Fold this sequence. Notes:
By secondary structure, chain A is α/β, with parallel strands linked by helices.
Amino acid sequence: MAKINIKIEGIPFEVEAGQTILQAAKACGFEIPSLCAYNHGECSQGSCRVCLVEATGARGLVASCVYPVAEGMEITISSPKATAARRTSVELLLSNHNKNCQQCDKNGKCELLHVAKITGARDDMYQGEQTPVTVDKLTPSIMRDTSKCILCGRCVARCKNAHGLGILGFEKRGFNTIVAPAENRSFEKSPCILCGQCVSVCPTGALMEVSEIDKVDAAMKAGKYVVVQTAPAVRAALGEEFDMPIGTLVTGKMVAALKRLGFKKVFDTNFGADLTIMEEATELLSRIQNGGVLPMITSCSPGWVNYAEYNYGDLLPHLSSCKSPHEMFGAILKSYYAEKNGIDPKDMFVVSIMPCTAKKYEKDRPELSVNGLKDVDAVLTTRELGKLIKRSGINFVKLPDEEFDNDIVGEYTGAGVIFGATGGVMEAALRTAAYKLTGEELAHVELQEVRGFDGIKEASYTFAGTTVKVAVAHGMKHAKVLLDQIRDGKSEYHFIEIMGCPGGCIAGGGQPYVKPCFLPNEDNDILDTFKQKRAAALYRADASKALRASHKNPQIVELYETYLGEPNSHKAHELLHTTYAAKEKFAD
Amino acid sequence: MSHLQAAAVKKIHEICDRYVNDKTPLMMILSDIQKEYGYIPLEVQELVSERTGISVAEIYGVVTFYSFFSLTPKGKYVIGVCLGTACYVKGAQQILDKFSDIIGIKPGETSKDGLFTLDALRCIGACGIAPAVTINGKVYPKLTVDAVPKIVEEYKTMEANA
């Protein structure tokens, strides 16, 4: 890239041509106050006017997030004119914003409040018309409050970029403009997959998860036998809630915190992941050997399952009938575990800590229950767990490392851990499928072909004469390519892994917010690298385990020997498998 | 979607296909549908979305941004009262209010019998004959509040005799 010379605040710098002023200034060590996700293509092109600066050669002040640098340009950030203009921009945004900041769950991670502080915005400078308020709390997963929305459009862009969906859009005009699903519908009455990607980019409290902390409190207070399980991706990100560097693995501290929070047992969802692999690998081989519906597609990601039910009702027989790992684990806890320990399953309350907002919806699906008891009773996101820990007077960073409970369930292998990254379910399934076909363990368990962040990955493996062609997609935009191939009868694959969120669960809609303005110690390109850093933590955890294939998990072996019989047995189907149904996109 | 007749589905597909090579076909498609059917309900927007790949929310956004597009059927007679600056200073607001009183509908609404739709328009470019009103394209120049009841009555009579 060609270099050009500019001056910022009178200091000469050499910067890359083609950059915006905001990017160039950041590279030179300046932090222009802005609401911008640093040109990640996910804001509405300089319309918020927060990042105004003076630049020679321009008429008036320019929005630094969209204005490109030019040879010889002199940029002034700190002049009285620029400082006052930025403050006015923020004051105008605040004039149409519901400022109940103390009650707002986004407080602490609100980019508007942050920019209000650093620009010195004054209260109530402008009074005038207000946008009519809509609060949508109808889904168990995500809520929308237009009184907090500043119309930046990041959510609109994210839904399109990640999924090609565009559930949210700008509606109406003038002060009536809102960002909403068509007809200002609830997410519940639109084909929203509840993945929470929009929540993860919203700068304010306009989009947030629906909290279930109260439910957990009530269960504790009622004296229920409250147990908790944590998804693999949580350990790779929870530390960020306590200002630890992105990619820090905090498994031991997380377990210690959960034990201090009063949970009777602290389990690893990875046990459920190992169980899922036993069921799913068996289902796959059975479909291949008995002429079943192929390709088979994974069903762990509830966002993906929602997408399939709304958009590909004709392809639902391709989905594995396996429940997702935490649902399987919930079902086992309320049957096998309760029986063995003399606990009445009705007294049991299973909490799942998940990187995901769609899991909140999933756990309320009527088909995910056994004998009238829900497999899982409450789902908290990684962010909610962070809140719970802070509220309870626990100094997370100083906690000792403790171990998960694993008396008769809870032991896990490396295969379970990698479920949290795109390609991980595929890799885990192949480790076990290879063993089932050849009777031998894979010499090299790390299947690099399905790792990494390409939108679609494909590979082909031959085990004992059986060739298994596989593909992996994450984000519905990429999944759609593979699904349309199936619809057109052109799919060559036997097995496809689909995860709803781009990058997989490590970048799920319930994970800690990655907002550069709150991460001064991270690299400038953190928005491009955080997924790799979190995934690397999971792959490290896998590599550190002695057992790395699900069928080697001794507790899983015992569970089958003493309780379930074989994978895909009648008992296993009763507890561990589910069904799907096509859904109308815009139901009345 | 189930409410749409096969012929309508075919027609809307045909309209979408007219603009397959356009970079930004949405305005043209919606404009043609508005002219063909007089309104663009959600189920039609869904159809356009499926055919073009443009999200329903985006289509709905365009339909609700431009007053030319309508989500509900318009009346047989569409009364457009210009509220542009010239008409406004010549008393167009009072004329709009009078139509509103007599027909019993607010601007943007359609009467229950489906006869009238009342629209408040931005400048229609007829400032020389302000205040101006159009009814199905026919222009009523330099209108006074007193003339309004007679005009409404004319259309009602015309309808009764039809």
